[in-house]
Amino acid sequence: MKRHFLIIIVSQLRELEAGMNNDKTFEPPSNARIAYKLICSLFGILFVTVFLPITVAAQLEGRIAYAVSGFNEKLGRSDFNLYMTTFTEKEDFETIALNHSGLYPVWSPKDDTLYFVQHVGTESHIFSINVTKPKQKTQLTAIGGTYRFLSVSPNGKKLAFNGYTNQQLQQDNQIWILDLDTGEMGTVTSIPHFGRTFFFYGISWGPQSQRLVFSLERSGGLEQLYLLDIETQEIEVLTEFNIDYYPVWSPDGQKILFRRWNREFDTLLTIDVETRAISPLFTVDKQTSMWTDWSFDGQSIIYSRWGVFYLYNIDSGKAEELFQVEGGIFAISWWRQDVLPVEPKQKLATTWGDVKIDSR
Fold it and tell me: Is 24 among the domain residues?
């Protein structure tokens, strides 16, 4: 129907134009000629916008925070230092040093607050700064310990991380929740250690601030992905029989990005939270340090390989180099605006003692 309509309009316009050009006696008033040209211009716009497909390149927005390995002049030794890069309207990159050592930086969804882990002497604490006034640092944890893999809830009220306090053993490594309003912190998992040390490899909040996805090493050297319901503290297996780590929940809540270890290379994949369908994106060699995060709309992924940032477009399957820094990149957090709220589609009904395996 569209094609038939288009042919009729083109034919009529061509006939009118031919008459105007060939018939010497055809002298329409100037107003009519102007109207004719206006109609042709409008038709051209209509043709381009309606009948021709247009591909619009995604524009980088927001800012990213990350840690870079390098020499810390204040400490007089090698350390990880925090940086922030803002994507400008001119598609340029403005990078500033935040003048703090730290790891696992994550943005508050509400304002200019950045959370991170910093080593103080022989222990670590969680701090926050306002990037507009980065010199003012606030300590959030009352008890020191070994803390890793920060993730801030989308409602901006809680921080999730894993670790253990100075009053505990390394085998007591669990997932903690820090209430940013009250300062209270407590564990939300009680995973048995069976006398051995185990490690977490990434934590990420779901969009409704009700669930967490995390990677955990279990016996046999496998790291698997799990879903944790914060309210019930019930846990469900998400992946198994592989080494899967560094999960990052998508802004719309439908997918989780993660990395899978293979013998010769690593693969970046997504898993559909509802159907459990796994989709590979691309592979990288093992001689690389890789961190990832989603764009606001979930259409792109920013990732690092050593000291270089790349942007991967999910639809096209292509990646482009963004910029390079001196040193190795450790953790990336892309400031997200207008995160889409999604209600969970199912309720988890398992505990760690009787973990449910969904074979879908």
Answer: yes
Full strand arrangement of the beta sheet holding 308-313: 292-294, 300-305, 308-313, 318-324
277 and 232 share one domain: yes
Query: Mind listing the pLDDT tens digit for each residue in 108-140?
Result: 998 899 999 999 888 999 999 999 999 999 999
Total number of domains in the chain:
2
Which CATH number covers residue 94?
2.120.10.30
pTM over the 0.90 mark = no
Rg (CA), the chain: 27
Question: And the tokens for 79?
Answer: 């350390």
User: 14 and 69 in one domain?
Assistant: no
Mean per-residue pLDDT of the chain: 80
Q: Same domain, yes or no, for 215 and 324?
A: yes
Angle at the Cα of 282 (from 281 to 283), degrees rounded to 5? 145
Among 110, 101, 184, smallest CA distance to 153 is for 110
Q: pLDDT, tens digit, for every residue of 288-335? A: 668 999 998 899 999 998 899 999 999 999 999 999 999 999 999 999
Q: Which residue has the tokens 């009729």?
A: 8
Contact between residue 203 and residue 194 where contact means Cβ atoms under 8 Å apart: no
Residues shown for the chain? 360
Q: Name the β-bridge partners of 185.
A: 178
Helix axes 30-46, 2-22, angle to 10 degrees: 150
Structure tokens at 57: 């390149």
Note whether residue 58 is domain-resident: no
Count of alpha carbons within 13 angstroms of residue 113, beta-carbon side: 17
Q: Which domain holds residue 6?
A: 2-51
Flag whether 57 is in a domain.
no
Same domain? For 177 and 322 the reply is yes
Structure tokens at 240: 């198994």
